[in-house]
Design goal:
single chain; 214 residues; mainly alpha; two-stranded antiparallel ribbon; 14 helices; 2 strands; 63% helix; elongated
Amino acid sequence: WPSTLIAAVRSAVVTSRSGLPGLATRVGAQVVSIGMLGDDAARELLTQRLGPARIKAETAAAHRLIAHCGGLPLALAIVAGQAAALPSLPLSTLAEDLDDESRRLAALNGGEHDTDLDAVVASSVATLSSTATSVLAWLAAGPRLRIRAPVVAALADVSAAEAEAIVRELLTIHLLEPDGPGLFRLHDLVRLAVRSRPVDGLDAAADRLLSFLI
């Protein structure tokens, strides 16, 4: 890489759903994972974008927006962008759209690919190996639970090492999130987006996943 380009990269902020291992390896970029936002940080994000007066005027609606976004930065940014673009729109109206699970993905669409949560998740899924794609769909079809690599191994009928590789693949693009030592989970909005797409054998896989809980 030319030194001028390296200097430019070092002074820039690059965002991505992936872990950007290539950028970190080639130019020594410092990788910072944002992760899920707590309620206080989520409220601060909305307050910065919309102003404290608007948040204070509709405290309950703001709380519902934060709850439905579940700390997912992209979801919060989409909601904030929608509200900022329509300053006369009550936050309660946005909250009502998110209240209804059947309308939630449509509500989290800011009109462009990068501000459409469903499209962003679909793009991430498209980069996965076929096995990881199937595992993700199976996990999304099952109940909400904390996931361990052995569960992935049993679902996909692969070795422990292969299961660990699948988990890393899903973690790298944030389709799984850490949830304690050796534990992982699907964010509810990722689960909803994944479940919106048909996958062969999904019912059988969901039954297998349920069997681990019995």
